[in-house]
Design a protein that fits this description.
Chain lengths: ~110, ~120
């Protein structure tokens, strides 16, 4: 059974801190790993990773995938209160639909 | 483009009532799915469809029914609502499916359902 585990489940940091969110997975015939940010409503897409070792960046957010060790990290530098959200990791494998982790709830306090 | 549209946004039901959550997408996506989200549980897949006329069960299908008569629409039916079905429901779609597809999902805004 495909599985996605995120850690930590929740995190409180101060503005300006750097955070690292973790996602490990077990999936048959890996296709891609996706990160989403969820504030009050629907998840919004951040990154899709398919190749090992290639960093994706968008502003203060970056993510990298390690297909050998079966994990990904999402880094957020110089955090702001607007980064407060639940960050979801999901993995696509074989012919099965996306499997989501339980998410990491990030709270950034001023 | 409207993207993925879900209705209603909010609904309160009594135990035993039935209802249908509507989902429509205008992006000509093959793949559509329904997830429920409960506190601390992430997104759990209820049912999905890889094309018109084809549906399959996800992780938590009990108590829900789906059909896919057109590419655009994928309604979720609750046949006899139970308090355990109180949740936020998300419909999501994706352009492609299967080997070679990478699986990026586009989400609707969600429907908050309360069953008393």
């Amino acid at each position: 059974e495909d599985k996605v585990v995120q850690s930590p489940l929740s995190l409180v940091v101060h503005e300006g801190d750097t955070v690292t969110l973790n996602c490990s997975y077990e999936v048959t015939n890996f296709r891609s790993l996706l990160w989403y940010k969820q504030e009050k409503k629907a998840p919004t897409f951040l990154f899709m990773l398919t190749s090992s070792g290639i960093e994706k960046k968008s502003g203060r957010l970056s993510s990298i995938l390690d297909k050998k060790e079966l994990f990904s990290i999402l880094n957020i530098t110089a955090t702001q209160t607007g980064d407060s959200a639940v960050y979801l990791c999901a993995v696509a494998g074989g012919n099965t639909p996306l499997v989501f982790g339980k998410g990491t709830r990030l709270s950034v306090i001023a | 483009n409207a993207g993925v549209t879900q209705t209603p946004k909010f609904q309160v039901l009594k135990t035993g009532q039935s209802m249908t959550l509507q989902c429509a997408q205008d992006m000509n996506h093959e793949y559509m799915s329904w997830y429920r989200q409960d506190p601390g549980m992430g997104l759990r897949l209820i049912h999905y469809s890889v094309g018109a006329g084809i549906t399959d069960q996800g992780e938590v299908p009990n108590g829900y029914n789906v059909s896919r008569s057109t590419t655009e629409d994928f309604p979720l039916r609750l046949l006899s609502a139970a308090p355990s079905q109180t949740s936020v429901y998300f419909c999501a779609s994706s352009y492609s499916w299967g080997v070679g597809a990478t699986g990026e999902l586009f989400f609707g805004e969600g429907s908050r359902l309360t069953v008393l």
